[in-house]
Amino acid sequence: MLKGECGSVFKNVWSSPPAGVANDLVWVHCPATCGKCGEQAPEAAPAPVPGKCISWRQTKDCMANGKRQPSMDRGCNEVVKGGWSGYCECDGGIRAAESDCRHQPFTCEAKCGAQYAYLRQQRQAKVSAMGEVESEAFDADDSLTKLYKRGKGFYVMGNTELALRHFREALKLDPEHKACKADYKQAKKLSKLLEKIEGVMGKEVEGKGRQGKMDRDEQYEQARELLSGALDLVPPSVYKVTLLRDLCTCHTRLKEAERAHEVCGKHTQHDSGSAASKLLWAEALVLNALYEEAIGVYSEVMEADEHSQEARKGLDQARKLLKRSKEEDYYKVLNVSRTASARELKKAYHKLAVQFHPDKVAERGATSEEREAAELQFKKMAAAYEVLSDEDKRAKYDAGEDVTANPGDDGDGGGGGQRGGFMHHNGQHVHVHFQ
Question: Could you state, in order of their start, the residue ranges of all structural domains in the chain?
Answer without folding.
Answer: 3-128, 330-431
